[in-house]
C-alpha cells in the first residue's frame, strides 16, 4: 500500500521473537524483542501495510511463478531478484545489522543434495518440519544455511554475518523462520511442468513443436543439462522486434546477440519462453556477420525486426545469459525512415 510522500516512520518498530531459535548461539529469550529504528531525517514513500507507519509484525508476500515458490517475509525488508534473490532493509529502516546478508539458492537436482555448508568443520545439523516441508539446517558461528526439497527443486536460505565470528541478530533469525514457516512449492506453475505438458507437433502461431526434452528425460539421458527445466525445439519462423548487441571481445571478435523487446506480447506466440526469448544467440554466425556490414541495422539502440528459424529454447532457473538459439533468416529496420511527400 502506498503512503503519501512526506510521512515519517515511527520512532521505533517492535516485533516479537516467540518463534525464533538460535542453534549456534543457544536459545534466545522467547520474550525478546527487536527494536527497529528509522533513519533520522529520512522520508519513506513506499510503506506496506495499513497507514503511514510500517509495523515489523506486518508481512509481505513474495511469489516466483517461474521457480514455483511463494512465501511471506518481514515487510521491513525488500527483495531484489536481479542477480538471484536477496533481501535488504527497506529505505529509512534499520532492521538487519549492517554486515548481515540473506539470499536464496535454487537448484534442480534429481534428489536432495547436501550443500557446501555440510562439509564445514564444526557445523551443527538440525532437521525440522515447517508448513509440511522438511528443512535441514547447517549452522556455524555467524552463518546458517537451511534447505528443503520438493519434486526436483531444492531451495536453500543462506544467511549470515561478516565476520563469521560475529553473532547473528534476532532479526535475521526471525526472517529465516518466517520464510521457512510459510514457503510453499507450486508445481503447476513451474516451467518443468509446463514443458512436460507440451507435445511434439503442437502448434503455437507460426511455430510447430519439433521436440520436447523434459527434466525427467534429461535425467534418464545422464543429466546432459543437469539442473535445467527442459528444452523445446521448433520448426517454422517467427519475427521478433528488438536490438542487436555485440558481446564479443578484442580477442574473440564480433559476436552478435539479439535482445527482444516484448512490449508487444504477440511477438512470441506462446506463454512458455517469453522471458527467455529476450536474448537470442545465432548459430549461423557467418551470415549474421555479413548482415552486420549494413551498419544502420546493427547500430546501438537501433530497433530492428529479425526473422529466425530452427529455434531451440533451454529453460533454467539461472536468468543470466542467452538461453535461446536460432538461425537468422532476415533483418530489417523496425521503423524505416519514410521520406516526406512534397
Would you kindly provide a written description of the structure presented here, covering whatever features stand out?
- The chain is mainly β.
- It has five helices and 20 strands.
- A seven-stranded antiparallel sheet has the order 5-6-8-12-11-10-9, covered by helices on one side. A five-stranded mixed β-barrel has the order 16-17-18-20-19. A three-stranded antiparallel sheet has the order 1-2-7, with no helix packed on it.
- 28% of the residues are buried.
List keywords for this structure.
342 residues, mainly beta, Jelly Rolls, seven-stranded antiparallel β-sheet, 5 helices, disordered N terminus
Question: Strand-residue fraction?
Answer: 35-45%
CATH class of the largest domain: Mainly Beta
Alpha carbon gyration radius: 25 Å
> What string gives the helices and strands in order?
EEEEEEEEEEEEHEHEEHEEEHHEE
Number of separate strands: 20
Shape: globular
CATH architecture of the largest domain: Sandwich
Distance between the termini: 55 Å
- Portion in helices: 10-25%
Amino acid at each position: 500500500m502506498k503512503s503519501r510522500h512526506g510521512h515519517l516512520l515511527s520512532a521505533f518498530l517492535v516485533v516479537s521473537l516467540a518463534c525464533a531459535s538460535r542453534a549456534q548461539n543457544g536459545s534466545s529469550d522467547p520474550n525478546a524483542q527487536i527494536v527497529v529504528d528509522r533513519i533520522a531525517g529520512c522520508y519513506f514513500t513506499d510503506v506496506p501495510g495499513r497507514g503511514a507507519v510500517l509495523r515489523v509484525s506486518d508481512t509481505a508476500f513474495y511469489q516466483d511463478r517461474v521457480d514455483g515458490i511463494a512465501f511471506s517475509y518481514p515487510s521491513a525488508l525488500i527483495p531484489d531478484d536481479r542477480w538471484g534473490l536477496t533481501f535488504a532493509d527497506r529505505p529509512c529502516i534499520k532492521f538487519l545489522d549492517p554486515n548481515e546478508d540473506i539470499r536464496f539458492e535454487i537448484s534442480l537436482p534429481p534428489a536432495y543434495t547436501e550443500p557446501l555448508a555440510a562439509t564445514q568443520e564444526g557445523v551443527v545439523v538440525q532437521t525440522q518440519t515447517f508448513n509440511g516441508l522438511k528443512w535441514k539446517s547447517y549452522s556455524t558461528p555467524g552463518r546458517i544455511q537451511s534447505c528443503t526439497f520438493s519434486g526436483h527443486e531444492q531451495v536453500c536460505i543462506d544467511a549470515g554475518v561478516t565476520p563469521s565470528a560475529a553473532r547473528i541478530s534476532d532479526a535475521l533469525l526471525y526472517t529465516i523462520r518466517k520464510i521457512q514457516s510459510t514457503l510453499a512449492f507450486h508445481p503447476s506453475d513451474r516451467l518443468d511442468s509446463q514443458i512436460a505438458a507440451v507435445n511434439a507437433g503442437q502448434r503455437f502461431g507460426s511455430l510447430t513443436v519439433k521436440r520436447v526434452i523434459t527434466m525427467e528425460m534429461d535425467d534418464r539421458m545422464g543429466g546432459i543439462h543437469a539442473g535445467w527445466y527442459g528444452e523445446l525445439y521448433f520448426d517454422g519462423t517467427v519475427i521478433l522486434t528488438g536490438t542487436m548487441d555485440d558481446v564479443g571481445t578484442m580477442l574473440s571478435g564480433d559476436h552478435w546477440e539479439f535482445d527482444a523487446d516484448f512490449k508487444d506480447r504477440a511477438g512470441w506466440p506462446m506463454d512458455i519462453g517469453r522471458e527467455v526469448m529476450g536474448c537470442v544467440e545465432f548459430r549461423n554466425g557467418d551470415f549474421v556477420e555479413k548482415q552486420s556490414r549494413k551498419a544502420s541495422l546493427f547500430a546501438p539502440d537501433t530497433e530492428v525486426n529479425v526473422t529466425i528459424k530452427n529455434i531451440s529454447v533451454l529453460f533454467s532457473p539461472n536468468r543470466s545469459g542467452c538461453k535461446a538459439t536460432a538461425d537468422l533468416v532476415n533483418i530489417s529496420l523496425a521503423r524505416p525512415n519514410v521520406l516526406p511527400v512534397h
